[in-house]
Write a structure and sequence with these properties.
By secondary structure, the protein is of the alpha+beta class. It folds into four domains: about 5-80, Winged helix-like DNA-binding domain superfamily/Winged helix DNA-binding domain (Arc Repressor Mutant, subunit A, Orthogonal Bundle); about 85-135, no CATH class; about 145-215, Roll (SH3 type barrels), CATH 2.30.30; about 235-315, no CATH class. Helices cover about 30% and strands about 30% of the residues. It contains nine helices and twelve strands. Helix 8 (about 275-285) crosses helix 9 (about 300-315). It is globular.
């Protein structure tokens, strides 16, 4: 492969990811290689690098994209990468107020923060030395998604969205009759009827994407609606010994148990398959150690086996 600049390489990577993501079921690796005139090892190298971007994110969907490579097939889901990068005027004003609180308008200054504040004030049409009275209104509705869902509940409208299911480590399209938006343990959830499954489900709002409200009438919530967050107790369990830098695992995934052992964490996760465990191990890196694992998920050397399988792809 001829040497290319960093800028060109990034542009090509973004083009690859968006091209693959345009196909909901993914594409064959050979087709992507032909489309972008790359060898298999070159393409897999770029995709593996992409899968590591944002791997320290506290939440799954804070990652810009999700790359899944299985043998000759690859799938890409665009997560936070699809979120708009432009700030709204409200967000700009909030930033101005926060930055203004850290500076003294009577002194002024040429420090980076003061210069940035002056530019932002000019963009907003404000006087940088203006003293603002701020009425703080704590957001109790879980943000824009919760507001949209609350309105859909009031109007009895069915909703559709893309959702990542933790227990199955899968991204799918959902059609839901929304019943209740509620908060538990600093997270916001939607309780509703999964229309395709015909069963009630609880969805975490930060894992909902591409939310749309339809004109279809939604069913009414049953009396005594439960807001329990209990997940199946019959799922196989894996126990991981993790470095302190991997504390994001506790925030990102429901845990069975967490224990501090010296400067490391002993974390138990309930999952449905080995692919999820492999993903966590790859994101954390070689410092992640499996201390116990349900036989149906694999053996204690699952991490090493996964690493060997990925390395084998580059030797083809």
């Amino acid at each position: 492969m001829s040497r290319i600049t960093v800028g060109t390489r990034i542009q090509r990577l973004l083009a690859i990811l968006q091209w693959i993501a345009a196909e909901p079921d993914g594409v064959e690796i050979s087709a992507a290689c032909e489309r972008f005139a790359m060898t298999r090892s070159e393409l897999l190298g770029e995709l593996t690098m992409a899968s590591m971007i944002g791997d320290g994110s506290a939440n799954f969907d804070d990652m810009p994209f999700l790359v899944i490579i299985e043998d000759s097939h690859v799938e890409v889901s665009l997560l936070s990468f699809r979120q708009p990068l432009r700030m709204t005027r409200g967000e700009q004003l909030a930033l101005f107020v926060a930055a203004r609180a850290l500076t003294d308008p009577e002194i002024g200054g040429e420090d980076p923060l003061s210069r940035a504040l002056s530019k932002l004030a000019a963009h907003l049409g404000l006087d940088p030395s203006l003293v603002l009275a701020v009425d703080v209104d704590v957001d109790h509705d879980g943000g824009p998604r919760a507001a949209t869902l609350d309105q859909a509940i009031t109007d009895r409208r069915r909703v559709a969205f893309t959702y990542w299911t933790y227990s199955r480590d899968a991204v799918s399209e959902r059609l839901v009759d929304p019943w209740l938006v509620f908060s538990r343990h600093d997270q916001w959830y939607l309780s509703g009827l999964d229309v395709d499954q015909g069963q009630s489900r609880v969805f975490r709002l930060d894992r909902i994407h591409d939310l749309t409200v339809s004109d279809e009438t939604a069913s009414v919530a049953p009396p005594g609606l439960s807001t329990s967050l209990d997940f199946p107790t019959d799922l196989p369990v894996v126990e991981l010994d993790l470095p302190a830098s991997a504390s994001w695992v506790i925030e990102a995934y429901p845990t069975v148990a967490v224990e501090q052992v010296g400067d490391r964490l002993r974390v138990k996760l309930a999952v449905t398959g080995p692919s999820f465990v492999e993903r966590v191990l790859l994101r954390v890196g070689p410092e992640a150690v499996i201390t116990s694992i349900d036989p149906e998920l694999g053996d204690l050397d699952l991490g090493a086996v996964t690493a060997q399988r990925i390395a084998a792809r580059y030797r083809r």
